[in-house]
């Protein structure tokens, strides 16, 4: 009787015409990036950073972040891609790792701020809330591709969580209902966005860089536990890579926050031309 509620999976293709195919995965991620850019520009104007600085940063950061995200994923799935090299560039089918994108974007930001004589801490504080918002939106690309899910569960269990039927139906994958870990992470990220925006409006209580460090700790903390529920984790032996990085990032951000709070470090304080 329970199978009567099963419907066909949503079409992952948003538009197809001739040789052109546009996937919902790309549309959703692009939408998150555009919205994040608009919000960052708005906050940047308030803090005296030119709008063009954000556009120029994105022109460099976006392609490099995507490349790094794909490289990260392919490296840890090399046993498959070594046998299917033609699929290495097929990011439209999914298979990009957010930690790879974050690392790539972070490196570009440091270099960019150095050459533009901008405060990297200030830029990170501006970008952090919009980044986690984009991450929360981007997880719905996983939803459309039916990926980033957890272990086998039941429809009754999902209904007990008050998850809408249209999400439950999409979680019927490979003959079984799956735990919607994409949804949990999306909700965690969007809650983090609300938290960081709240902290931003109480900026007199925080020092430069602390919004960004809070973002790192918030995301890493949630990702550690959500990753533990996933069945498609990238692994090194028996260790989930994302869980390992989550621990490293959380501890690192916390230590930096504590040290900077108790030490008089010159580059900590305000001043747009200080890195």
Verbal overview:
This protein has ten helices and seven strands. Strand 1 and strand 2 form a beta hairpin. The protein has 275 residues and is mainly α. Helix content is 61%, strand content 7%. Strands 3-5-4 form a three-stranded antiparallel beta sheet. Strands 1-2 form a two-stranded antiparallel sheet. Mean pLDDT is 89; it is low at 267-275. The chain is globular, with a radius of gyration of 20 Å. Helix 9 (210-227) packs antiparallel against helix 10. The N and C termini lie far apart (62 Å).
Instruction: List low-pLDDT spans.
Output: 267-275
Describe the largest sheet. 3 strands, antiparallel
Strand segment tally: 7
Order of SSEs: EEHHHHHEHHEEHHEEH
Structure annotation, total helices: 10
Task: Give the termini separation.
Answer: 62 Å
Question: Helical content, roughly?
Answer: 55-70%
What is the strand content?
5-15%
Q: In which order are the strands of the major sheet placed?
A: 3-5-4
Family: Belongs to the Lgt family.
Main location: membrane
Pfam family, one: LGT
Pathway: Protein modification; lipoprotein biosynthesis (diacylglyceryl transfer)
Give a concise summary.
By secondary structure, this protein is mainly alpha-helical. Helices cover 61% and strands 7% of the residues.
